[in-house]
Amino acid sequence: MPDLNPLFPAILATHVTLAIALFVPSLLLPFTLRNRSVAPGAAAEPPGAFVSGLLWIQAHGTVVIGGGLAITGFAMIAVLGPRMLEQPWLLVSLAMYAATAVIAFVVQRPTLRRLQARDGIVTDADRAAWRERARRQRYIAYAITSAVGFIAFLMSTKPALW
Hints:
By secondary structure, this protein is mainly alpha-helical.
């Protein structure tokens, strides 16, 4: 096997970039939902280029990004050795990342798709329910952002947890 040590900075930078890119749509899309688009008689505006890009990444890019994450993760283990996985801060970070990924992909993605579609909004009760679901998605985005910040804190400080 070739020596990957000289490539480690590039592998690490790619891994971190992909890890963040995987969550960017889940972090930003809830804030693109506009209440005025569900007002009586209002037609939903088509999303702009940036939002369309986020929607495309969320719908089609996650497999590619996830595959890249797996490849760069295994490359980092190959460079640093399996003892790296014995670090408590890394295990907590990986568990937090896994939990955040489950929340983002099992809870948030399907709900965001339904909210973006804006189907079946006819009555004031439908509009109020849509607004409440949109608010809930923003709270989930705040939680995901907090988790990503906590992971970054663990990765940068590498505390002795046990």
